[in-house]
Amino acid sequence: MKRAFLVCFIVVALFSSLYAATFKDVPANHWAYEAVDQLTKLGILSGMPDGTFQGNQPLTRYQLAVALYRMLNILNDRISAVEKKLPTSTTSSQQSQQVALPANIDAQLKDISNKILELATADKNINTRIDNLIAQVNSLSSTVQDSSKQLNNLKRDLDDLKALYDALTVKVTEMRGLVSVTPTGQNLNELSKNVDDVRNEVENLKKRLTTLEQTVTSLNQRISSLATTESVTTLSSKVSGVEKNVKDLQDSVNSIRAQLTTLSTIETKISNVERKTSEIDAIKQSVSEVSKLQSAIFADVNSMKSDISKFKSTVDALNNEIVGLKKMDSSLQDEIANLKVEVNDLKVEIINLKQVDSEVKNAISTVERKVEGLEKQIQDVESLKSEVTGVKNNISTLSGDVEALKQKNSQDVKNLKDELAQLKSENDNLKAKVAALETNQTGNISLILSILGVILGGAALWFVIQGQQ
Question: What's the pTM value of the predicted model, to 2 decimals?
Answer without folding.
Answer: 0.20
